């Protein structure tokens, strides 16, 4: 439909160009005008601006003028109508395509709020090729989301209907960075109610909000000022360590990455020790730590450590090798 309208719009513009050419030729031949005067007469006639003719027209010139007015006005109206139709259909088509993508999404992330922090989160998710949808109701920010090509929903993130539309029951995680702490608490509470297994990260601005968010169901609470202060201290005291983490976690120029991988029930690694598995000898991956399902934390596991179902591995290594490890852990 959009392509057909675009062709019709091009046809209208083409017709307008042909009419202008006919007008220039007609005035040149019938009224003996030079090209500039003929073009001027053609433009003021087609646009019906009402300027006076350069000179009295003959009967043939008058008939040409009538022809140009009728066909010109029709061509302009047709082209303008098709241009408006094209813009509307483009918007509708884009929204339909976005809705279709949203319906197909699963194990995705939901970003509530597209402020300064929300923008950074979306860029980070995009860099990591993680599927996500943004919930925002500010018209100016919605335009930015559209320019970026992000999937978004125009609505209130505290609304149950909007969260369901965002696929909350199929989502893997949600981050609440709305303007106020009250809205973040409300969005967290609603999200946890619809999907108890959802991993929720929420922002707290005021000191007393952290406990409320945790009670509402947030798995992690981020306090920007505290986090920023701690980071600045680490940069002062241990800049090399922070640089290393930045390179590993975010840089696209190196192939090394730090990943969190969970062992599924059918994983080939379950029951095998670290030394007998392909993790180190074949994939050259370092297991920094293991989180057990029972809450046990194993730092720098020994070669005799045996993998168990549900283990969460913190691994560092080549990006392609980590992809293979993820396959071992979930097959």
What's the end-to-end separation, in Å?
44 Å
The CATH architecture classification of the largest domain is: 3-Layer(aba) Sandwich
Secondary-structure element pattern, one letter each: HHHEHEHEHEHEHEHHEHEEEH
- CATH topology-level fold name of the largest domain: Rossmann fold
Mean pLDDT: 86
What is the overall number of helices?
A: 12
- Overall, the morphology is elongated
Q: What fraction strand?
A: 5-15%
Structural class based on helices, strands and sheet pairing? alpha/beta
CATH class of the largest domain reads Alpha Beta
Strand line-up in the sheet with most strands: 3-2-1-4-5-6
Please specify the SSE layout and strand pairing.
Elements: H1 2-30, H2 35-46, H3 59-104, E1 109-112, H4 116-127, E2 132-136, H5 139-148, E3 152-154, H6 160-165, E4 173-176, H7 181-194, E5 199-203, H8 209-216, E6 220-222, H9 224-237, H10 239-250, E7 256-262, H11 278-281, E8 286-291, E9 297-299, E10 312-318, H12 319-330
Parallel strand pairs: 1-2, 1-4, 2-3, 4-5, 5-6
Antiparallel strand pairs: 7-10, 8-9, 8-10
Helix pairs in contact: 1-2, 1-3, 7-8, 9-10
